[in-house]
Amino acid sequence: MLIAITGTPGTGKSEVARILAKMLDAKLISISELVGKKKLAYTYDKKRKTKEIAEKDLKKIISLEAEKGIINILEGHLSHLVEADYTFVLRTNPKELEKRLKKRNWSKSKIRENVLAEFIDEIAMEAGTGKTTFELDTSKMKPRKTATLIKDILNSYSLQKKYRTGRIDWTEKYRNVVLKMV
């Protein structure tokens, strides 16, 4: 089984995935660690100051890294591009996300890019809709609570219906915050 945990940077993916992997006694696969260990190739976009990974390379390495017969958790903001049994999109309201990324000392342009991506639901849209794709608002939720909720969703059809993608929309509430950034 493969569970993908995705979202814009700053939504809590890494910590939630680490906790969930322990809860489920699962293998944790981190996209950034694969890049760091040079198992996954990338190109560097100087203008955006970011690493670019080819989708086909990502899918290939995950097919090699994921172990059959156990639970595998794939974590990273591109993990939704890999076919998974379950995909969880972590979402954070744009104002909170901006605070989190500022704490990381990210550049204004990177903060702007990621807050805008969150505002327009970019990753949720890329992940798509379906019976096994869910979105969770981590704006006020601690990582352990988020991991516990994911575990509960995996075991409850009624929670799966409740948390399917398409239910979180920041456009009205945070429009003014985002317009100031543009």
What does this structure look like?
The chain has 182 residues and is an alpha/beta fold. The chain has a single domain (2-93, 128-168), classed as P-loop containing nucleotide triphosphate hydrolases (Rossmann fold). It has helices at 13-24, 31-36, 55-65, 94-103, 108-119, 122-127, 143-154, 157-162, 175-181, and strands spanning 2-7, 27-30, 43-45, 50-52, 72-75, 86-91, 133-137. The chain has a five-stranded parallel β-sheet with strand order 2-5-1-6-7. It has a two-stranded antiparallel sheet with strand order 3-4. Strand 3 and strand 4 (50-52) form a beta hairpin. Helix 4 (94-103) packs antiparallel against helix 5. The longest helix has 12 residues, at 13-24. The mean pLDDT is 93.
